[in-house]
Amino acid sequence: MAEQDIPDEYLDGYARILADVSATGRRLTRDELDSRRVLGERAAEAGYGLRALVGAHLAATRAHWPGTASADSVLAATAQAVDAFAEGYERAQRLAVRQEEAARREFIDDLLYGRSDLGLLAERAERFGLRLSYAHAVAVAQGASAYDDGDAVPREVERALIGRFGDRSILLTTKDGRLVCVAPGDQDEVLAFFAKQAYAATDGGQIAIGRPQPGPGGVVQSYEEALNALDLAERLELGAPVLRAADLLVYPVLTRDRQAMADLVLNALGPLQQGRGGAQPLIDTLSAYFDSGCVGAEAARRLALSPRAFTYRLERIHKLTGADPADPVHRYTLQTAVIGARLLDWPAKQF
């Protein structure tokens, strides 16, 4: 903004203060400094640039230079006045930033928890570059540490996203110590890139991607799917760096009827509690067996057992449960029961 565009109201009283202070050599009084700060705040709130405002003060200094005053006294008075003006300006800017951050955080909380009227939420979303009338998908990344918006990791990931995609209606934030990325549902490449960058920035963290969901409530649905995927990964010990909720739909189906799953676990695996050391070592044996594609040698290696010791365990399971892990029909029941035991945290939690 050019100097002539700065209204005189933001220089109100400056010429008088300049003449009086320069003539006497005194410093500006507290009231005079406060008046400069107030004008600086008002100028910032009005949207004027600080560079143009400083230029306007220098132009006013030349125009109202006291003829009998020394250069040192005039420049000292100018420096004090401009410094106080800039202090007020910066104070207003910091307040505006804090208010903007608070508004953004409130919006993100409402967006991810679905606590606001969906119509109003959609209106607020446009301010942050989201059009909630379209489908959106959410990816959530968690690492060994908790992250806040101002931390180095979120900034690093955000720079990478902006550098690659620019402005594509992408929202990157943090929530409960995790990184969260919201992107249009038809731009899977954005979330895939986010997952790659987040994995590197978090030193091998885990990322879950929810399915695209339509409408203003779609973001919270996709976000919850991503969180559930991370929870499943922890309980089932899924070590994949990137999890897609679409690939894990079988697990919510299995746990939809919790009582039925609990009955299956107790019926199929309950007899294992009679084994030496309880049920858990034998459940771990079944888990390793199924996770290795029912290859006994590989399962034994994962458990640090000899093939003979591993075979003995399978025989023990067969004897206690009456189900043979090597039999395809029995295998399905046992594997489903093992998954249910993990999901229900059995036998650590009895039911």
Automatic annotation (TrEMBL):
Signal sequence bounds: none
InterPro entries for the chain: CdaR-like_regulators, CdaR_GGDEF, PucR_C-HTH_dom, PucR_C-HTH_sf
Domain PucR C-terminal helix-turn-helix: 282-338
Domain CdaR GGDEF-like: 114-232
Similarity comment: Belongs to the CdaR family.
Protein name per its UniProtKB record: Helix-turn-helix domain-containing protein
